[in-house]
Description:
- With 213 residues, this protein is α/β, with parallel strands linked by helices.
- 44% of the residues lie in helices and 15% in strands.
- β1, α2 and β2 form a beta-alpha-beta unit.
- The longest helix is centred in the last third of the chain and has 19 residues, at 194-212.
Amino acid sequence: MSLSSREILSKAPVVPVLVIEDANDAVPLAKALVAGGLPVLEITLRSAAAEESIKRIIAEVPDAITGAGTVVNAKQMERMAEIGCAFAVSPGHTEGLLKAAKDTGCPLLPGAGTPSEIMNLIDHGYDILKFFPAEQQGGVSMLKALSGPLPQVSFCPTGGVSLSNLVDYLALPNIITVGGSWIAPKDAVKAGDWGKITKLAQEATDKVKALRG
């Protein structure tokens, strides 16, 4: 039985947003992040190696909850469901994408940045959304403002989130988790420094635990 978006993101102190350029890095990277307490992984479709990376992680890292990011159309949504992604993430949303998510049954975290976009997604039955790009859309102050008129929605802010402002976001009642790329820096991945990535993941996990008890 597949997990819902809420169930998935409730297991995610932080969602690492990953651009994997070499599929050979996928499994050790995923294992390093899981070892640091971050089991929910968003592999973005921004590289030629993305699909192969997702397949390898699904096959070889059973403790990871593997999803696809930067899913921007129905065809991609259908393909990600076909290869077994646990969830998909989009920077925005279209009617075609929402229909494909409904048809496939693969949980989608659609993106929104304005009250009108959020209200449209509420009409489609969504109550957990990606807030993107978070810092450029007003960050913590914007999300705080949105909680007044739209208290039924929870967000995963992504874009400009880092260890330095992580607590500011997670302290808000309408934030379920955050997405970030700082946990897997390109230089560490390229060097195969999986220990450094586990350490960065553990730092984020510890910070969330300290905040949420």
